[in-house]
Amino acid sequence: MEGEMATLTKKDIGGFLARQGILVAFALFMIGFTLANAQFLNPDNVMGVVRSSAILGVMALGVTFVVISGNLDLSVGSMMSFSTIVVLDLHDKLGPTLAIPAMFAMTLCLGAFIGFLVGYLKLNSLIVTLGMLSAIHGLTLTYSGGKNMDIADKEGTWFSIFGQGDALGIPVPILIFLLLAVVLGTMLAKTPFGRKIYAVGGNGTAATFSGIPRARVVFSCYLVSAFCVATAGLLQASRSMGSQNTVGQGLELEVLAAVILGGASLMGGSGTIFKTVIGVLILGFIQNGLLLVGLPFYVQYVVTWIIIILAVWLDIAAKRGRLWSPIA
Amino acid sequence: MSAQTPVLRLEGIVKTFPGVRALDGVSLSILPGEVHALMGENGAGKSTLMKVLGGVHQPDEGRIVLAEQPVVMSGPLDAKAKGIVFIHQELSLAGELSVAENIYLGELPRKRFGLVDWAELYTRTNRILERLKVGFDARTRVGDLSIANQQMVEIARALTVDAKAVIFDEPTASLTDAEKVVLFEVIADLKSQGVGIAYISHRMEEIFRITDRISVLRDGQYQGTVDTVETDEEGVTQMMIGRKLDLSRNESHHEIGDGALEVRGLSCGHLFEDVSFAVRSGEVLGFYGLVGAGRTEIAETIFGLREPSAGTIHLNGEEVRIHSPADAIARGISLVPEDRKSQGLVLGMNCRDNMTLPQIDDLKAGPFVAEGSEIAIFDQYRDKLDIRTPGWKQAAGNLSGGNQQKIVIGKWLSMHPRVLIVDEPTRGIDVGSKAEIHNLIRDLAAQGYAVIVISSEMPEVLHVSDRIVAMYSGRVMRTFTSEEVTEDTLIQAISGLDTGQAA
Amino acid sequence: MTPGTLSTILKNGAIWGFIVLELIFFTVAGQFLSLSENAFMDADNMLLLFKQSAPIGIIAMGMTIVMINGNIDLSVGATYALSAVVLLDAMTWPVFGGLGDWVIPVACLLALLTGVVLGAINGLIVWKTGVDAFIVTLGAMLGYRGLVFMYNGEQPTSHLNWTLVDFAEMQVLGLHTATWVLLIVTVAMWFLMNRTVHGRNAYAIGNNREAAVNAGIRVGPHMLINFMIIGFLAALSAVVFYAETGSVNPNDGELYELWVITAVVLGGTKLTGGAGSIVSTFGGVLAIQLLRKGLAHIGADTSTVNLVIGLILIAVLLLDRQLNVKGKEELKI
Questions:
Q1: SS3 sequence of B307-347
Q2: Which helix (H) or strand (E) holds C28?
Q3: Of the candidates B340, B477, C21, C242, which lies 20 to 30 Å from A11 by C-alpha distance?
Q4: Is the pLDDT of residue A156 over 80?
Q5: Contact call for residues B232 and B201 (beta carbons, < 8 A)
Q6: Which three-class secondary structure state does DSSP give residue B41?
Q7: How far apart (Å, rounded) are the C-alpha atoms in residues B241 and B217?
C-alpha cells in the first residue's frame, strides 16, 4: 500500500561501517604508534599535537563551510601566508591594535572576491581558487618584497599572546580553535544560514526552487573561510613573531585532507564542524605518530595521499552500494 | 498484407517497477514492411514496451520472438546487432564531433594501428545522408546543427545496419513540415525493403497518414490492434481512454472569488507564445498538453525562474514583475515542481528540514532556528496529508515517491500561498495516493486557494479542474469549461488539430 | 544571444590574437622599461621562447587529452620531479657501471617508465574506484611529491653526463633539442586526437558520456591510457629539461600543474571535457610563455608573474562564460 518507506538498505549499513571504519583504522593507528613509541600518549605530547593542529584546524573550519555548500577552496594556503605577512608588517607600522583589524579586512576582501566569482558569476571553484592560489602568492611576494617579515621588538608587545599565551592553563591557540569551532558549529547546525548552506550544497536546484538566494549563500561561505584564514594567520604570526612568505604553502591540501577525513562529502550537502575537528585531530595524530616513530615529514605526504583516496573511495562506495565502480 | 511471418513478436510481456506494473501481459506483432503505430496516453506503457524491445529493460515475464526464434536482448548494442534499432526521443549525440562520427559512434571504421578510415567513414555516411536528403554533409559539427537536423542524425544512426525493425519514438517532435515529408519518405523506403516499423506518436494526423495498423495500450494493458483504414480518430481515442475510466467531470463548483492571477500575452522566446489566462480564488485551472507544449515553462516563468520576452503578469489586479523564486514566494505564489527529486527536495536532508526550507528565515527564536515550530509544521502536514515516515529525521530520499510528493506539497501549503501551481502532482504515484491528492486539490480550492494543475493524464485533469487550458507547441489552443469538455475534443486540441472552435 | 559566427571566430582565433597583442605590448613596453639593450622580438629571443615553452608545453599536450576526456591531472609536477630524479640517479647505479655512455638511453627509458607507471596508478584508481580524477590526482600530487623526498631527503639529486648535456644543448636546423621534442610531441598528439579511434572516442566520452557508453565505447581503458600518456609526457618533459641542467631539487615542478592547466584552458579546452584542440593548446602554451618572458623583459619579478597568471586564468573563465551565454529564456538556476 502507499507509504511504504524503504527499509535500511545495504547502503546505509555500508555507509555506517565506512564511517566507523575510519575510526577503527584510526584506533589501530593509535595503538600501533603507542606501541612503537611510548611517548605518543604522553599528555605533553598530546597537548603539543592539539596545539600545533590548532592553526590548521581553524582553517579547516572555514573550508568546511565552503565544502558543505558544494565548492572548494584551494587558495587558503597562500591566503594564510598573506595574512601572516600582512599582520606582521602592519604590526610595526600601525601597532597591533590597528594591524589586526586591518589584516582581517584585507583578507576578507580577498575572500569576497573569490565569493563573488564563484557565487555570483558561477565560475568553477576549483579553477578559480587554483588561480587565486597563484595570484595571492604573487601578491604576498610583492607585498613582502621577497623578504621575511619579522617584528622588530618581540618583547615589547602583547601581540604574542595569541600564539604563545596560556589562559586557564590551556594554550590560547587551542582556546581560540575551540571557541571558533563552537561558534561556527552552532552557526552551521542551528541557524537559518547553516540550514541554507546544507540545502545549496545538497541540491542547488531545489534550493533555488525553494527561494534560497544561492549566490549569496555561496558568497558568505567564502567570507567565513577568509575570516578563519585570517585568524589562522594571526595565530601563526603571533606564534613565531616573524615569518617567511611561504609559511602557508601546501596547507590547502592538508586542510582538505582533514575535512575529507572528517567525513564531509566533496559533493556538498553533508559534514559537520564536529566531524571536521575530529578529522583535524586524526590527521594531527597520524603526522605526530609518524614523526615519533622516526619517519621524516615527507612520509606524511604519502600517508595523507593514501588516506584521502581511501576515505573518499569508501564514502562513494557506501553511497552507491558497491565497492568497485561500474565504469566499464 | 497477406499472412506473413512477423518480423518480430512480443508475447505476454510483463514489466514491473517498484510500486507499479508498467506492462501487464502485452502481446504484439510487427509484420515485415508495415508501419505499426503504438498509441496510448502518457504512462500507458508505450515507451516501456519499446525499451524492452530495444534491450534497455529486461522483461519480468514473457518473451521476444525474432523471426520465429526466441531471443534475449541483453542491451541496446545487442539489440542493434540483432537488427532492432531504437530511435529515442531524447537525443544522445556528442555535439563536438562531426555528423559522421556520431552516426558511427563506437563503430568507426578502422585502418591499421587504430587509425580512423576517414574515406570509408565519409563514403558510408554520405550514402546514408543522401537517402535522408538532408542539407548538411558528413563533416559538419553536430553541435552546429539545428535540433531538427540533429534528430535527422539520430535517425541516420538507424540506417548504419541492415535493420529488421526500427522503432521511432515521437520522431517528428521538432521537425518542420518539410522535414517530416523527408522522414516519411525514409520510412516508406524502409517499408519497401521489408523492414518492420514501430511508430510511437500522439499525432493523429501522422498516424492516419502513414501507418498500416494501430495498437493501443492503456495502463500497461493491451487494448487491441486495428487496421488504420478501418478506424478513425474517434475510434482510436475511445480505445485509448475507454469507457470504464472514471471521467466524472468535476461537478461541484465552489464560491469563485476574485481574480488572483492573470496572464496576458505572455511569451518566452520559442518556448511559449502569446499565452493568456486567468485563475480566480476557489478555482482549479488545469493545463493539459503533450510534453513540450510549454506548460511547465509557463509555470517556471510565473515563479520567477525564467524571464518572459513579452506579455504581463497580474496579481490581484496589479501588474507585477517577478525576478526570482524568492520574489514569487514573497508575493504568495508557490510551485510544486515537476521533478520532485531534482527540483522539489534535497534528498539528503531530513523530512522536516525539507518542509520548512522556504520559510526558514521566519522560523527563528533569536538567531537560532526555532526547531519546535518546525516540528509543529511538520506534524501538522504529516497528519493532514497522511505522510508515512518513521519520523521527521528520516532523509527525504528514503521515502516512497508518493510520500516524497506529499512532503513537497506540504512544504508549499505551509506557505499559505494565494496561488498554488502544481506540476504533474501524481506522476509515478500509486493509485491510492493519487486519489488523496486529487481530493486535496479540490479541498484547497474550496478553501479559497487559486490552483493551477499541470498534468499529462486526462482523467486527472478532467477530475480536478474547473476549467482546462489545452496547449500545443507553446500556444493555447483552447480553453474549456468542465461542462463543455469532452475527451475527444480535448485530445484533438492538444494534438494540434483545430476543432473549429474559437479559443 | 546564440553563439553566432562572431563568437565562434572569437573563440577559436582568440588565443592567436592574444599572442599578437602580447608581442605588440611587450615590444613597445620593452622600449621604455627594459633593462637590456635588445629588442623583445629579435630572432634569438623568439627561438628561445620555443625552447622555454617545452617543459610546460610537452605536458600540456597530455593534459589536453586528459581534460577532453573529462578528467584532470594535478600530479604532473610531482611526476615530473620523480622522473627527473630517476633519470639522474639511474646513471649512477652500479649495475649500469659497465655501459659507459649507453647508460643514457637506459636511464631515459627508466625515467619514462616511471612516468607511465605513475600515470597508470592514477588511471587505475580513477577507473576502478570511481573516485573523481581531481581528488585522485590531488592526493597523488602530495603522495608522489612525498616519494620524491623519500628518494634523497631534502637534498638535490645530481649527475652530470656531458654527452647528455651536449645532446640537449645542440641545435638541429637552428632549433634546440627541446624545441624539436615539443614539436614532435605536438604533431604526435594532434595525430592521436584527430586521426585515431582512441582520440575520437576520448572526445565522445568527454562530450556525452552516456551516449558513448550506449554506443559501446569502454570508458575505463580510455581513461587509463590517457593518464599513462600524460604521465609519459611529464617524464619526457623532465628528461628533456634535466638532461641539460643535471640537477634536480625535490621541490622542482611545483605548481607546474597550474601553468599547464592555465595554458590548456587559455587555449580553449573546456573544463567539462569534450571540447578542445592540440593546436589551441599550443597557442595557449606560447601565450603563457610569452607572458612570462615579456614580464621579465620589462623588469617584473616572479611575484608579479604569479599574480598575473592567476588572474589570467580567472579572466579566461569569465570570458568563456560570456561567450557561452545561452538564450534569454534559460532557467535562472
A1: CCCEEEEEECCEEECCCCHHHHHHCCEEEECCCHHHHHCCC
A2: helix C5-33
A3: B340
A4: no
A5: no
A6: coil
A7: 9
Q: What torsion, rounded to 10 degrees, do the Cα atoms A240, A241, A247, A248 define?
A: 90
**How many Cα atoms occupy the beta-carbon half-sphere of C106 within 13 Å?**
14
Q: What pLDDT band is residue C47 in, cutting at 50, 70 and 90?
A: confident
List of residues 6+ apart from C47 with CB closer than 8 A: C174, C175, C176, C179
Would you state the pLDDT for residue C3? 41
> Cα angle at B224 between B221 and B229, to 5 degrees?
145
* Mean pLDDT value across residues A195-215: 95
Task: Determine the 3-state secondary structure of B25 from DSSP.
Answer: strand
Tell me the domain boundaries of chain C: 43-323
B450: which strand partners? B419
Instruction: Say whether C330 and B306 touch across the interface (CB within 8 A).
Output: yes
Query: Measured between alpha carbons, how far is residue B83 from residues B93, B166, C54 in Å?
Result: 21, 8, 51
Q: List, for residues B329-382, the tens digit of each pLDDT value.
A: 999 999 999 888 889 999 989 999 999 999 999 998 889 999 999 999 999 999
Domain B8-241 has CATH 3.40.50.300: yes
User: How far is it, in rounded angstroms, from Cα B24 to Cα B63?
Assistant: 13
Nearest CA in chain B to A208: B325
Query: Which 3 state secondary structure label does DSSP give B422?
Result: strand
- Supply the ipTM of this predicted assembly: 0.85
End-to-end Cα distance, chain B: 42
In B, which residues are within 8 Å of C200 by CB distance?
Answer: 97, 101, 108, 116
User: B245-332+418-503 domain in CATH 1.20.1440.120?
Assistant: no
Read off the DSSP letter of residue B44: S
CA–CA separation, A304 and A31 (whole Å): 19
In this prediction, what percent of chain A has a pLDDT beyond 90? 44
Q: What is the pLDDT of residue B158?
A: 79
- Determine the pLDDT at residue B149: 82
- Contact yes or no for B116 and C195 at CB 8 A: yes
What is the overall mean pLDDT for chain B? 85
Outline where DSSP puts E strands in B349-474: 364-365, 368-369, 419-423, 450-455, 467-472
Q: Does domain C43-323 have CATH number 1.10.3470?
A: yes
Cα C175 to Cα B316, C183, C220, C242, C288: the distances in Å are 77, 10, 39, 18, 20
Report chain C residues touching chain B, CB-CB < 8 A.
Answer: 195-198, 200-201, 203-204, 207-208, 210-212, 214-217, 274-275, 327-333
Length of chain A: 328
Three cell numbers, residue B40: 496510448
Locus of grid cell 523527408? B182
- pTM comes to 0.84
Measuring CA to CA, which residue among A213, A255, A250, A230 is closest to residue A66?
A255
Distance CA C60, CA A142 (A): 28
For residue A76, is pLDDT > 60? yes
Q: CA distances (Å), B71 to each of B50, B84, B405, in order? A: 15, 12, 39
Q: What is the dihedral of CA B51, B56, B62, B65, to 10 degrees?
A: 80
- For residue B455, the SS3 value is strand
Q: Is C224 on the interface with A (CB under 8 A)?
A: no
Q: How many residues are present in chain C?
A: 333
Alpha-carbon span C24 to C17, nearest angstrom: 11
The helix/strand/coil state of C297 is helix
Average pLDDT of B413-419? 92
* CATH topology identical between B8-241 and B245-332+418-503: yes
Contact residues on chain A for B345, CB-CB shorter than 8 A: 203, 206
H or E, element range at C308: helix C302-323
Q: CA Rg, chain A, in Å? A: 21
Residue C320 has phi, psi (to 5 degrees) of: -60, -40
